[in-house]
Amino acid sequence: MSKLIKAVVFDFDGLMVDTETPAYHAFCKVYGEYGQQLPLETYAQCVGTSFDVFNPYTYLAEILQHSVDSDVIRKQVDVRYRELLQHIEPRPGVIDYLKDARRLGLGTALASSSYFNWIEPYLTKFNLHGYFDSINTADLVQQVKPDPELYMLSLQKLNVRPEEAISFEDSLNGFTAARKAGLRTVIVPNEMTSTFPFEAYDLKITSMSTTSLEEVIERLERQNRVETLE
User: Fold this and answer.
1) Which candidate, 58, 52, 51, places its Cα nearest to that of 73?
2) At what angle are helices 149-158 and 172-181 packed, to 10 degrees?
3) Is 11 a residue of the active site?
4) Which residues, given as ranges, of the chain have pLDDT below 50?
5) What is the Cα–Cα distance from 105 to 222, expressed in whole angstroms?
6) Lower CB count within 10 Å: N or C terminus of the chain?
7) What is the spatial order of strands in the sheet that 184-187 belongs to?
8) DSSP-derived 3-state class of residue 227
9) What is the spatial distance between Cα 75 and Cα 62, in angstroms, rounded to a whole number?
């Protein structure tokens, strides 16, 4: 096994558990009830980051051009979102990756733009706590993705250099954050983010269930040897 790669850093929403696609569908349903549409390219601005970049609640109230309380919209979306989340499970291959990271002696961190109180119930439900050496969320940083702060904090806690770690992301904002922090970048898009225009990543795979963690490391190592020779 590689002596260069010492750690892996995972995103959460959309990568480990696809909470992002149901969220978009929930917004689309509510927008439709008001006779409006929410294009994916518009909604994509807030995927993997906070609503400070784009707020789909206030945006609907704005385009309706009449008095609609964004809190009412928030409650309507929340009802539909929770309905869609009822049977959610970790994405295929996620548990295998976490187990393999432990077996291979790699450091493991979670870097999420969400707050801990959103992620924790899922970590408990799917028994994921024990797989992580470090859990880093919006509570611990000044800026979330696409700012690299979450990744820089993860590297600091894992005590590894950027080139010694692999990031796993599904969104453009997350990928941008990892790349800015200097990590090797692996894209694992979900149903919604598969159409996003990712560029200059190190590797892109369709699913963790079809490409093992060891294979990912081996492919990145081959790339590194070629780059070194060049």
Assistant:
1) 58
2) 50
3) yes
4) 1, 228-230
5) 20
6) C
7) 134-136, 107-111, 7-10, 165-169, 184-187, 203-204
8) helix
9) 17
